[in-house]
Amino acid sequence: MVFLLGAFVGAIGLGCRGVPTQEERQARWELERAGFRGASQFATNVSWSLSSDNSLDDFVREAVLQHPAVRAAYWQWAAAVEEITLARSLPDPQLNFEADVANILMTFMPGLMQEWPGPGKRRAAAAMASAESKIQFLLFQEAVLRTAWEIHAVCHRIHAIEQELSARRHEFELLQEAGAVARLQATANQLAWEEVYAWQRECTQVAFEIRNLEDRRIALRTQWKTALGLAPDQPDPPVPARIQVTPLDFNAELLWQRALAQNPGLRRRAAEVRKAAAEQALSARAGLPDFSLGLMADVRSAPWMWRPLAGMRLPVWQDKLAAVRARSQARKEAASAAWQEEQLRLVAQVAEKISLYRELTRNLQLLRDHLVPEAERVWELAQARYRSGQLDYREMVNAVRRRLNLIAQAAQVQTQREIMVSELVLVIAGFLPAPWADGELNALETIGFESGWPPTQKGSPPSERVSFRPSISEEWAVP
Q1: Is 176 contained in some domain?
Q2: 416: in domain
Q3: Based on the structure, what is the number of domains in the chain?
Q4: Mind listing the pLDDT tens digit for each residue in 112-129?
Q5: Among 74, 110, 279, 373, fewest CB within 10 Å belongs to which?
Q6: Closest CA to 394 of 107, 224, 195
Q7: pLDDT at position 251
Q8: Domain of residue 178, residue span
Q9: Structural contact between residues 410 and 367, judged by C-beta atoms closer than 8 angstroms
Q10: What are residue 245's DSSP bridge partners?
């Protein structure tokens, strides 16, 4: 008895360790893999080291390492992984003291008590915690996806407004040149002064449009800084001077094959179903008793007197047990229905996005292949006729405005299409930019670690990689 008590106390003094479950080892491996090149580099208020020469992928990579939303989701995931250890561990042992006192201390009996939950309860609780850690992992993945999508969307909007500003400024310069000629013609009585006044109104309108665009550009620059996760007191970050765009022959329907399998929202709903199933398994064991064993020793007697202790918690309240089982069943039904609803929502969303993508692609193709080249030819012909005096001022202005309006419209449609492609790739298909992964910076990595577990060698398991921009062949530059 003395040996057993001494071994028990010695084990507590040296530190007891439980046996991790398979799901716990996998969750910790996934967390370590993400944190090796990701969370360990998380920092706040870091100086921005990129320049306008860097690619948009470089900005995404740096942003996900410091954005508050990504950091918050990561540490929530890390906390959920630690919950698995808490769920599968035994309760802490209790150190008890008992004494009999009359006029003097008659007996003094220290002892230890350990509780054991009923059979299978800790395993079911660990399964629940493992499913919750998977939910938090997928929320972390969604946070990175939202951050990457917002960076892409704001960057393309900035480039679009730069294109429009360039067109409006060019239009203003042409109006100024044409207006100077109109004044000379009006002074020589070759043109009515009403035409000059009309030119002044045109110039004023374009000047106000330029000011409005400049204000919108300031707002977008602020959104760009926010999307990168920079604090207000940090210097304004640069914007990539050139961004890659998706060619017109990109087939968006290829993403549909991956959407149902890789979408993080749908996978999160599936993890919620698994968590509810684990909770149901735990509730099925709610009627099993919990046990406690202990040992006490009277150290004042000679020899010592030993007192073994045993206890059992009896779950006798049938209405309580029935409520526990009914609650777990209801949560499982709700999780299953939510998973089915997420499938339907995803199908509708993908169909809508692909339809909008096709519409934008057709509009962009019409503008690039037909309307803009035609407007260019009309403008060149109008210039030649205006210089030779065969065309009046207003027709010249209309040709200029039509050409520049179509160029600005093409930039806007291009931006909408790029945002749509980014949403399809990042949000619908659920590909995660891997700033901590080795390889090319323009690669996206699927974080479905289940197929790669357990690792057969040191490092990360092989994972499927896809190109973020399939067969990119075009670039739009900020003028």
Answers
A1: yes
A2: no
A3: 1
A4: 888 888 888 888 888 888
A5: 373
A6: 195
A7: 61
A8: 2-243+260-286+300-351+395-402
A9: yes
A10: 474
